[in-house]
């Protein structure tokens, strides 16, 4: 109980917390002792340091366990490979063939085996290897095309970004800044608006009194619209009358002379009609076949 504070004696919860912290510190001290060969460096002991060291120790133990697991798997795989090699009756023949290979043949065999492992092909079939290489080339070409498109898009985005930055600079320039006396002008406009609003009832009363004194009724917007519509109707009638008058264009202004001229035109029209009929009859007689007498 020497490691407990005086307050822990009278508070069970505080005592449990301090016991847990002491247990964690013992674990951290032992872990640091193993990592630093018994020479633990001095450091400040507080709750934040304890939390950080506990997290670090947990990660370290997890990494150690993972490393041990990988080591066991590699050792087991190597042992199985050696067992299979020793049990293989063709191992001696394969070793002799490998030893009899020329340097070029050994390099080719190593390249083929490396390519098979790289392409995840357990059996070094040249057709499958070629197909996989073609697939990789197609994938590489597609990735290159995508990379080019991304580069073009990046250039466009950079161009737009530069344009936006220039626009921001222009907007932040003095040309777009408010005048220094804007607040004063706004206050002045508000004061004038309030003054005019206060004078508006008085002005309305004056207009009403003047209208009553002169006897002229007040004109409203509806009256103006009505008069405007009447004016438009009158203009339409004027246009119709002008069209009617244009029909008599060229006649004398005197009524009797106009009637005589109209009668002369009618006589001329009848003569032209008779002339047309006679010409048509002559044309028909000339074109019709003549009958021979029996």
What would you call the shape?
elongated
- As a whole number of angstroms, the C-alpha radius of gyration is 57 Å
Order of helix and strand elements from N to C terminus:
HHHHHHHHH
Low-confidence stretches: none
- Give the class from helix and strand content and strand pairing: mainly alpha
The N- and C-terminal alpha carbons lie at a distance of 166 Å
Average predicted confidence as pLDDT: 80
- The number of distinct β-strands equals 0
Taking the sheet with the most strands, its summary is: none
Question: What's the layout of helices and strands?
Answer:
Layout: H1 6-10, H2 12-35, H3 47-87, H4 91-100, H5 103-118, H6 126-171, H7 182-214, H8 221-246, H9 255-287
GO biological process, one term: spindle assembly
Keywords: Cell cycle, Cell division, Coiled coil, Cytoplasm, Cytoskeleton, Microtubule, Mitosis
Coiled coil: 143-174, 224-275
Quick description:
This protein is an all-alpha fold. It has 9 helices and no strands.
Provide a descriptive summary of the structure in words.
- The protein has 294 residues and is mainly α.
- It has a domain at 1-84.
- It has helices at 6-10, 12-35, 47-87, 91-100, 103-118, 126-171, 182-214, 221-246, 255-287.
- Helix 2 (12-35) packs across helix 3 (47-87).
- The longest helix has 46 residues, at 126-171.
- The model has no long low-confidence stretch (mean pLDDT 80).
- InterPro entries: HAUS1.
- Keywords: Cell cycle, Cell division, Coiled coil, Cytoplasm, Cytoskeleton, Microtubule, Mitosis.
- Belongs to the HAUS1 family.
- This is HAUS augmin-like complex subunit 1.
- It is found in: Cytoplasm, Cytoskeleton, Spindle.
């Amino acid at each position: 109980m020497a490691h407990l504070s005086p307050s822990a004696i009278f508070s069970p919860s505080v005592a449990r917390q301090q016991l847990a912290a002491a247990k964690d510190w013992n674990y951290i001290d032992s872990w640091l002792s193993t990592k630093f060969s018994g020479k633990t460096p001095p450091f400040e002991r507080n709750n934040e340091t304890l939390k950080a060291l506990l997290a670090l120790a947990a990660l370290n133990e997890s990494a150690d366990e993972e490393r041990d697991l990988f080591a066991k798997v590699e050792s087991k795989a190597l042992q199985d490979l050696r067992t299979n090699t020793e049990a293989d009756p063709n191992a001696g023949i394969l070793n002799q063939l490998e030893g009899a290979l020329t340097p070029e043949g050994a390099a080719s065999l190593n390249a083929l085996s490396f390519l098979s492992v790289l392409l995840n092909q357990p059996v070094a079939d040249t057709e499958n290897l070629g197909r996989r290489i073609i697939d990789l080339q197609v994938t590489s070409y597609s990735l290159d095309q995508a990379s080019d498109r991304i580069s073009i898009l990046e250039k466009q985005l950079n161009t737009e970004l530069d344009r936006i930055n220039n626009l921001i600079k222009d907007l932040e320039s003095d040309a777009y800044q408010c005048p220094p006396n804007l607040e004063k002008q706004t206050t002045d406009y508000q004061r004038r608006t309030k003054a005019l609003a206060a004078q508006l009832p008085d002005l309305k009363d004056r207009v009403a009194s003047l209208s009553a004194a002169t006897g002229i009724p007040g004109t409203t917007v509806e009256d103006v619209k009505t008069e405007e519509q009447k004016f438009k109707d009158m203009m339409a009638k004027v246009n119709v009358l002008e069209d009617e008058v244009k029909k008599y264009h060229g006649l004398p202004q005197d009524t009797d002379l106009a009637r005589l001229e109209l009668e002369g035109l009618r006589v001329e029209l009848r003569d032209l009609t008779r002339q047309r009929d006679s010409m048509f009859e002559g044309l028909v007689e000339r074109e019709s076949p003549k009958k021979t007498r029996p």
